[in-house]
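User: C-alpha cells in, sequence out, please.
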C-alpha cells in the first residue's frame, strides 16, 4: 500500500457518542466550553487508533454556533483551550503526533454565497491568535471557494508552519462522481492552482461524500503538491444546507470496512494524506492504520 499520513476522524459525533455536552446551536463547541476533558478523551481515542495528526476542536468556535457576544468575549480563549487540549493529547504518547489547528469557514459551511472577506478576516484573527501557540500546522478546512482559501493564506502569510488547504466538494451535482467541483462551482483544478500559488504544503478534500473524492483526486493528481482526503459519511446535501445545522443520518455502507475500500481507491489514485470527517470515528481510523500491516 502507498505510504500515507493518517489523520483523525470527526469530533462532533464522537463527543455526542461518549455523552459529552452536545446540543444546538453550540454543537462540538459546547464540550470545549463546559467539559474540555471530553474533547481530550476523543483526541486520545484517535491517537490510540493510530492517528498521526489530530485536529483541534475549533471548528464550531464561530458566532454561528456560540453567538456573537460569546465569540467576542471568549473566542480567542476558547481557541487557546482547544489548542492546549489537542497539544496535551499529542504529547502524551511515545510517538510523534502533530496538531493541526482547524480554521473553519467562519461565514458558513457549504455556503460560498455567504462569504465576506472582511468579515472572515475579523473572525479568523482571534482563532489564529488562540491556536498559534499550540499548532504544528494550519488546516483550513471545509472551504467552499478559492476566495475563502486566499483570505486564510493571506492572514497566515509569514507564518513558517505548513498550511493545508482543504476544500469541500459539490456532491449533489448529477456528474459529481466524474467531474469534481467546489461548492462554489469552481473546478478543483483552480483549488490546486491556488494552493500552489499560496505556497500551501498540501491540498485536501473533506466533508463530502467518498464518491466525489475519487474524481477530485484524479483531477489534481498531476499537481506538484501532496493530496489528501477525509470524507464524511452523510447522504448528499442540498445547496441550501449548512453543515452542522442538524444531526444528519449516517450511511450504513460506510462502516470501517466500507470506508477502507474508498481509502484504498484514493491511495491508488495518488492521495498521500488520509483521514475522516463527520461520521468517521476512531474505529475507522484504527481500520486504516491496521491496513498498513
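Assistant: Sequence out:
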Amino acid at each position: 500500500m502507498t505510504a500515507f499520513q493518517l489523520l483523525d476522524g470527526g469530533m462532533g459525533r464522537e463527543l455526542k457518542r461518549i455523552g459529552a455536552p452536545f446540543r444546538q446551536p453550540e454543537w462540538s463547541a459546547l464540550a470545549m466550553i463546559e467539559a474540555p476533558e471530553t474533547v481530550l478523551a476523543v483526541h486520545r481515542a484517535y491517537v490510540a487508533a493510530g492517528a498521526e495528526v489530530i485536529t483541534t476542536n475549533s471548528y464550531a468556535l464561530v458566532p454561528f454556533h456560540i453567538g456573537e457576544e460569546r465569540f467576542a468575549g471568549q473566542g480567542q480563549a476558547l481557541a487557546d483551550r482547544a489548542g492546549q487540549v489537542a497539544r496535551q493529547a499529542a504529547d502524551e504518547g511515545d510517538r510523534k503526533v502533530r496538531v493541526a489547528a482547524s480554521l473553519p469557514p467562519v461565514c458558513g459551511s457549504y455556503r460560498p454565497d455567504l462569504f465576506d472577506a472582511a468579515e472572515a478576516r475579523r473572525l479568523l484573527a482571534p482563532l489564529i491568535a488562540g491556536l498559534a501557540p499550540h499548532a504544528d500546522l494550519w488546516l483550513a478546512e471545509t472551504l467552499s471557494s478559492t476566495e475563502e482559501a486566499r483570505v486564510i493564506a493571506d492572514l497566515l502569510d509569514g507564518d513558517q508552519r505548513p498550511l493545508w488547504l482543504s476544500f469541500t466538494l459539490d456532491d449533489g451535482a448529477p456528474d459529481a462522481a466524474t467531474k469534481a467541483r467546489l461548492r462554489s462551482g469552481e473546478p478543483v483544478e483552480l483549488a490546486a492552482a491556488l494552493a500552489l500559488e499560496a505556497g500551501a504544503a498540501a491540498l485536501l478534500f473533506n466533508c463530502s461524500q467518498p464518491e466525489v473524492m475519487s474524481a477530485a483526486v484524479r483531477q489534481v493528481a498531476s499537481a506538484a503538491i501532496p493530496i489528501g482526503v477525509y470524507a464524511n459519511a452523510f447522504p448528499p446535501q442540498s445547496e441550501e444546507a449548512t453543515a452542522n445545522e442538524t444531526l444528519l443520518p449516517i450511511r450504513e455502507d460506510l462502516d470501517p470496512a466500507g470506508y477502507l475500500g474508498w481509502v484504498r481507491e484514493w491511495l491508488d489514485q495518488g492521495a498521500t494524506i488520509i483521514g475522516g470527517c463527520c461520521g468517521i470515528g476512531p474505529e475507522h481510523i484504527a481500520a486504516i492504520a491496521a491496513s498498513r500491516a
